Amino acid sequence: MTHTYNITGMTCDNCRSTVQAQLLQVKGVKSVNVELKKGIATLEMEEHVSLKTLQAALKEHPKYSITESHSVALPEEKREASFISVYKPVLLIFLYLTIVSLISSFSGNSFLLPVAMRVFMSGFFLTFSFFKMLDLRAFVDSYAMYDIVAKRFKAWGFIYPFIELALGFFYACNYDPLLINVVTFSVMSVSLVGVIKSVLNKTKIRCACLGAVFNLPMSSVTIIEDGLMIIMSLIMMSMLLLN
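The structure assignment produced for this chain is given below.
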């Protein structure tokens, strides 16, 4: 079921991200979409959640208030199509990166797997760092909710996008491939730990992989994203060490 609520007190996109992140943690809430200009929040729920429970979720941020508006039940077909609509940005990014990687990896009649992976990883890190930097502070707030390092050292959230940016450029330049793949494996493995813990605990929080631009819930899709980078870096390290 879907319910719509009025939200007051929001003045910027960081406010929107904060409200969204807090409401996503409420048990029974599957997804949250907050519209800053309209001052409304649309919540998809597994079961009915009382207004008092939602208000309690925002008690640490008294400048925001949530009140009842109206509720609409989603048709079954829309609920079935929700995966595509929710993850459309990620799916399109992966599709474009795959196409560019395949085009770049053909040399004559031969297919160069290392080139395909290097181009894909370069595009991945450059694209994902770009979206994080569009609203760096909002990304930091979201990332600190589940990453094991950012939880203890919030400054890590500010550093992480720049590490992704550097990795993207280094992959593009093919600079010291062994070192860059070791760094990728290490960074993404640490990041994956927090993601897996959140998914296994069924914590309702927003994934910060694309920053605060898109409302992507933490799920197995996030595990696949990080896991893919780890697997590719391992394959490339193996190729470099065996040659």
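Interim note for the steering committee: The first strand starts at residue 2 and ends at 8. The first helix runs from residue 13 to 24.
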